[in-house]
Every structure is written in structure tokens, then in C-alpha cells.
Write a structure and sequence with these properties.
alpha/beta; Glutaredoxin; 5-stranded mixed beta sheet; two-stranded antiparallel ribbon; globular; TXNDC17_dom; protein-disulfide reductase [NAD(P)H] activity; Thioredoxin-like_sf; Thioredoxin domain-containing protein; TXNDC17-like
Length: 117
């Protein structure tokens, strides 16, 4: 299956070395669902695009609301500088090659973004 879920111990720098070409940053699951409504809104299209014969994507959870809101959250720092979730980053040769950083971009541009890989 093309959607792979990172375990919580993965180092942010190591993410550049994963075999997947896309990294999806989501809010963590709290009480059975992602706490971020925008993440829940894009979940369907993310599953659709990265299913079947689609490219692989790695799902990374950024923490619960309290963890995410802290300025020192590891994903807000170097090298990712994630400022909001959901965010999808395309990797090429171990470097960021493109980014969709809000639910409106993801809903309207994800299919084209993935095809332009």
C-alpha cells in the first residue's frame, strides 16, 4: 500500500532519506480522529491519490494540539519549517522539491502536484 505511517521515533532529518517521494504532515490522532479539521477534510483525497498504483507517501503526525502549538515543535524547526497542517512535501534526491501547505491547495492541486513529480 502506498500510504506508509511513520512511527513517532523518526528523526526529522531522517525523513529526507525515506524511499517515499511525498511526506504528508498531519495532526496527531486524538480520541480516534485527527484533532485538526483541515487534516480530516483532506484525508479522503490523500488516500485516493496515494492508493492503488499511485506513488508512495509517508504520513507523519506532528503531535497533539498542545505539542503542535509550541514554537519549538521539531517540525516547525530546521529543516522542515512546517507552519500549518496539513502540509504535503515532495522530495527529490533527498531535497524538498515542492510543497502544498494548506487544505485549499491540497484539495485543488494535489492530483496535479503528484503527477508533476
Amino acid at each position: 500500500m502506498p500510504l506508509i505511517y511513520a512511527d513517532g521515533s523518526i528523526d526529522p532529518i531522517t525523513l529526507f532519506k525515506v524511499p517515499e517521494h511525498f511526506v504528508v504532515f498531519y495532526s496527531s490522532v486524538v480520541n480516534g480522529e485527527m484533532w485538526c479539521p483541515d487534516c480530516r477534510q483532506v484525508e479522503g483525497i490523500v488516500k485516493e491519490v496515494f492508493s492503488g498504483n499511485g506513488p508512495d507517501a509517508l504520513i507523519v503526525y506532528v503531535g497533539d494540539r498542545t505539542q503542535w502549538k509550541k514554537p519549538d515543535n521539531i517540525y516547525r524547526q530546521e529543516p522542515w519549517h512546517i507552519s500549518n497542517v496539513p502540509t504535503i512535501i515532495r522530495l527529490k534526491d533527498g531535497k524538498e522539491d515542492g510543497r502544498l501547505s494548506d487544505e485549499k491547495q491540497i484539495l485543488s492541486q494535489l492530483k496535479t502536484f503528484v503527477k508533476s513529480e
